[in-house]
Design goal:
alpha+beta, three-stranded antiparallel sheet, 2 domains, Ribosomal Protein S8, Chain: A, domain 1, five-stranded antiparallel sheet, Dna Ligase, domain 1
């Protein structure tokens, strides 16, 4: 449920034209999810603030975020099933990324296909 609120806060702030957004609580999964989004240019820098509670993250927005979503429950997929999930969740073939957690860490669907690993679906971004 944490990922749902974090991603919704970011999309809503993006639609309102905000330049940055404060999301909380922080977790390792959220930080890795944000780092994949940052690597593909959907968000700018983000800073983790340790408040000795659940933690906060300040995310710089750059106007490229259209939609994000969480896939719940976290479906197990094999490497050869990635393409069918891409067709199901993303609006176009080379537009957006599905983010999944694998034994090799949290990565997007293209990297998982290159490494030929499957895992659990976390969410998507485009």
């Amino acid at each position: 449920m944490v990922r749902v609120s974090v991603l919704n806060n970011m999309v809503n702030a993006e639609r309102r034209g905000k330049r940055q957004v404060l999301v909380r609580p922080s977790s390792k999964v959220v930080v890795k999810f944000l780092s994949v989004m940052q690597r593909h240019g959907y968000i700018g820098e983000f800073e983790i603030i340790d408040d000795h509670r659940s933690g906060k993250i300040v995310v710089q927005l750059n106007g490229r975020l259209n939609k994000t979503g969480v896939i719940s429950p976290r479906y197990n997929i094999q490497a050869n099933q990635i393409e069918s999930w891409v067709n199901l969740l993303l609006p176009a073939r080379s537009f957006g990324y599905i983010i999944l957690t694998t034994s090799s860490g949290i990565m997007d669907h293209e990297e998982a296909r290159r490494k030929n690993v499957g895992g659990k679906l976390l969410g998507y971004v485009y």
